[in-house]
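seq as requested:
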Amino acid sequence: MTYLAGLGLAFSLIVAIGAQNVFVLRQGLRREHVGIVVLICAASDAVLVAVGVAGMGAAVAAAPLLVSVVRWAGAGFLLAYAILAARRALAPGGERLEASEHDAPARPASSARTAVATSTRTVVVTCLALTWLNPHVYLDTVVLMGTVGSTHDARWLFAAGAATASAVWFTALGYGARLLSGVLARPGAWRVLDGAIAVVMAVIAVSLAAGA
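struct tokens:
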């Protein structure tokens, strides 16, 4: 039951739309460095939950200055990411997915510009920033889940359940996104997606800056 409690609580928190989930979804749609992104997100959550369960949740909650610093750093990063996404959405043409060797032939590019591959380093840095500069992640994993987990006798079993939920969710989100590849073969669809990403990132950035 303790394992299932951690699994259920983690799923209830992680499924909400956020900067991290949006990034994983986009990388999954691009079929680019998906394994690395999934690994970073799942491993980061596991580490943070473990830290919280170990007793750091109360310490973080008692350090408002640290939370404030992380909040402003996260807000600035998310706003910059929102601007980049907005530029992609407003750029003429737009990206489209290139079919892999196992897919149907790609449509003619016409005026569209083929999606430019992003370097592994850029993806890793972005993923780490979206994870570790987001105070919501600390509040959900270290503080909330850490506090709840510490109330269980088998708290490490609780942490294992939470880590499992994170791994399952990010794997499903990253690798399941390719099911939408047919729709996103059109450059117009990518402009809509990037526009939505820009809005989500900007809203989260404003909410962080406002202390929400």
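Residues 61 and 143 are 7 Å apart (CA to CA).
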